[in-house]
Amino acid sequence: MNVRSITPVLVLLLVCSVDAQAARIGELTENDPWEQARRFFTFADPGLRLALAGALLFGAACGLLGSFIVVRKMALIGDAISHAVLPGVALGFLWSMDKDPLAILAGATAAGLIGSLVVELIQRTTKIKQDAALGIVLASFFALGLCMMRMIQNTGAGSRITGLKSYLFGDVAVLNRQDVVTISVVVIVTIFLVILLYRPLLTIGFDREFARSTGLPVRWLDCLFQLFLAFCIVVALQAVGVVLVSALLITPAATAYLLVHRMHHMLWLAAVFGMFSAVIGVFCSFLGSNLPTGPFMVVGASSLFLLAYLFAPRHGRVTRWMHYRARRRNVSNENMLKSIYRIIEKGMAGKDGRAGVSMDLLAGERQVSVTELFGDLRRLRSLGVVEFVDGKGEVALTESGLRQARRVVRNHRLWELYLTNEADYASNHVHDDAEKIEHFLSEEKVAEIERQLDFPDVDPHGQPIPGRDIV
User: Fold this and answer.
1) What are phi and psi of 218, to 5 degrees?
2) What is the DSSP letter of 122?
3) pTM for the full predicted model
4) What distance in Å separates the CA atoms of residue 233 and residue 227, rounded to the nearest whole number?
5) Burial letters 305-321, b for 16+ CB under 10 A, else e
6) Cβ atoms of 125 and 140 closer than 8 Å
7) How confident is the model at residue 25 (pLDDT cuts 50, 70, 90)?
8) What class is the 319-397 domain?
9) Phi, psi (rounded to 5 degrees) for 316
10) 3-312, what's its fold?
11) What is the dihedral of CA 336, 341, 344, 349, to 10 degrees?
12) Which residue, of 116, 134, 172, 177, has the greatest Cβ tally within 10 A?
């Protein structure tokens, strides 16, 4: 991925949304969802444009930093920091007794860093493992934040705590222009951090010991990364909330992780998924009155992950099941062709190897009923590898079927000979292994085995090995 390509888009979003001071997204609800959907795609409401700009910005930032979190197996650390920032949010509010984005950002970031340091301190000075230390810090800081928010509510500032509550439960409608400006600065600086420190962060993520051996300041880079992670969490808190922000960090990155195998591709894709999830959340909450934005964002991100989990080209469960079914069908087809070829070979019928084979004889060879056999043969006929001999109850191989049958037999007998000569297997113990491997040997591997065996003519049982003229 070229992370630089995201920066102009985010700057454009900021410019397009700076005039959005009118009604907020929560105030723009109608009773008709279709009318609301139409209004959403016209982008005519200033409050909606503001909410979308903020959502897209922190969605991209969460996707970028979340990729490093997933690769470094730091999901629990991200969750702990997201809960640890709550006392800092309350302190930032107390600093000015108002929802000042800069004060809250500074307080929350400091609290997040303190939480990270406490986790490391517990690990270094006790025998408690990281997961237990994270659980202690997560619960303790979160509880402290809840207590401080309730204390603020009981003071004269209780009337102004509504905006502060958005950090706990998430509400994109409370974003104002100053919030979006703050988010934009954090996101743009985060992008430049990723550009400048991409290789060091990547090295640390995959091999910390190697990073140390090359002279990289691993501890300082960790602190810098956690600093920007805290920034990212804080800017996303208002829309998603403390409880769910870790999901927006992890889920888009995990989705990208299932789809690609290069880190720069993962960064780009995770940022896109984060932005798309944010748009889904804003859209769904815009359709009705008092619908939550943050939970819909997480639902959108989870839906994308579910699609990747099921249909990813290489790792999707449905995709792998379909490949498994295809392999089983291919093995069954090749076994049928091999059985026909062996019957023809035993009977020495037809010099071209395409003599008709009786259905009853083939059913006995395959140990299945004629009815079941006929169903399999119809599938093979549709593939153009067998043909029925009219009026004789026989089946014959086509030119294509003969080539495939000889290839499978050749693979089988070469592998038997290889195991006998090179692996010192007994000749009566190689058949079962060859039955499995014959379907998966590439032509390159078969050619290598032939050269190693000096181009043999017969297998360990004296059966002829079809030549290379079949391919």
Assistant:
1) -60, -45
2) H
3) 0.76
4) 10
5) beebbeebeeebeeeee
6) no
7) low
8) mainly alpha
9) -65, 140
10) ABC transporter involved in vitamin B12 uptake, BtuC (1.10.3470)
11) 130
12) 172
